[in-house]
Amino acid sequence: ACTGIENIDEAITLLEQNNWDLVAAINGVIPQENGILQSEYGVETLHGPAYGPTSHSAAASSAPSSSSAFRHVVPSRQIVERQPRMLDFRVEYRDRNVDVVLEDSSTVGEIKHILENELQIPASKMLLKGWKTGDVDDSTVLKSLHLPKNNSLYVLTPDLPPPSSSHSGPLQESLNQNFMLIVTHREVQREYNLNFSGSSTIQEVKRNVYDLTSIPVRHQLWEGWPPSATDDSMTLAVSGLTFPCHRLTVGRRSSPVQTREQSEEQCTDVHMVSDSDGDDFEDATEFGVDDGEMFGVASSALRKSPMMPENAENEGDALLQFTAEFSSRYGDCHPVYFIGSLEAAFQEAFYGKARDRKLLAIYLHHDESVLTNVFCSQMLCAESIVSYLSQNFITWAWDMTKEANRARFLTMCTRHFGSVVAQTIRTQKTDQFPLFLIIMGKRSSNEVLNVIQGNTTVDELMMRLMAAVEIFSAQQQEDIKDEDEREARENVKREQDEAYRISLEADRAKREAQEREMAEQFRLEQIRKEQEEEREAIRLSLEQSLPPEPKEESTESVSKLRIRTPSGEFFERRFLASSKLQVVFDFVASKGYPWEEYKLLGTFPRRDVTQLDPNKSLLEVKLYPQETLFLEAKE
């Protein structure tokens, strides 16, 4: 009831962190200034459970102890301020879903009022279905229904005709068209050519004209709007304007008195409807009231357009509009806001190299706070603050004015920082805004170092920023040291891996060279063996083909040849004198000296026998009756 925490696991975790001290757990979740449980004895602890009437005397007689003890749990009447319980509703209507966040003290009628603005359907025509307890009426308080935190409802409109598909095409086409509005400023006789999409509203046109003419919407007097333009919330596509160009005239009302009288008499005239948020400030401006005397109202009146669109699909687009609107209100000297999602801001701030990391500053804007205008113009836009933020922080911003944007940020906050931080921001009152959150990234989580409220000074803001940077710098130096050591280890490992790779490459190259050499040796050996086998085969063939050696007592003429080898050995053989010289060559080849590689030389006279005709007989070449020959290798 106090904290709005419905998740039993989360509640048990908080109790365990506080040694099951219920009061300490609640105080840890709810900020001190927003109402906490207090015991009758302040921070004094008891040595035993303080239940019953005897507890008081026991506490008085017991000395304080630093050991674990139970605090006196007081009744619920001692809760200074009960925190509101927020309920989330997802409401479905045809093809649309609307998210509504309300306190449980609200009524069903307030939900319908919000849906009336979102869906453009009268509340009286709505039937809100999906309640667990059956049908309820508009005056039913949500707390009495005992609803869970997240609820799903749907809207029925039986009294309204269903949308006609035959008209949806032209309407969509009109919404996508661009209208040229030629607006004449009556007092100065000047024309403005303004382009607006068909989805723009009449109110947006009037606010843009306010930017150009400085005539507040309340004091604008228009001519030329079609009779069908009955509401400033109507889009140009359905207002009856002439496409593609339409002429209008605008001027200023004569006096504030006349303006107020006409506003009271013609409160239903849509051309005179103005932004009620700025009425007091505009009237004060007419009467010359100083801005400083009305800074609370002025901060609201200066809102020509919202800082951030409601229910923006893309956070980057929302931040672009925020930056542009902030510049138009407070000038160009302001912090450089990071354009992108909160997750992208985390990446930019926390997940680079340790030397490049920065703190993350989250600026939470609220247009309804009386402190916003002073905080933005005098502190956030101070040159010293802007320069310091630029050097040491990544600055991200969000607008908490609209309930949908507020709920969206609280969801992001819970996801990234936990429920305690989200509950702290949820319990901040409007007048405590704007807020400045200082976030430091850690290895396992993101830590909120400081929450700075809007009621501060430039010096105090600078001191708190510097204190956060000092804490961050100490952590950053440790991270840099760890990163350097890690990079050194990785460099050594890379060098070792590279040396190992080179060694492997050298070993592989050496092994491949050895394998190639061995393969070449094997190939040459194979060739040599084949050659030897071939030569041996030839030798044997020649040896077998030789005619038989004649005997010494042969009756035929016999020639006796003595042949000396290169090694100094001799071998002899007898040949018939009629045998051809080729027979001698074959005999020498059969001994392993083929005539292709060796030449056969005679002594007296010295001659090369291998050059003679092998078909001549030994007698004809004068190798008869005997001769000594020499074998010599050819060059």
TrEMBL record:
Residues 540-560 are annotated as: Disordered. One of its GO terms (molecular function) is ubiquitin binding. Residues 554-631 form the UBX domain. GO terms for biological process: ERAD pathway. GO terms for cellular component: endoplasmic reticulum; nucleus. Pfam families: FAF1 (PF21021), UBA_4 (PF14555), UBX (PF00789). This is FAF1 factor. The lineage of its organism: Eukaryota, Metazoa, Chordata, Craniata, Vertebrata.
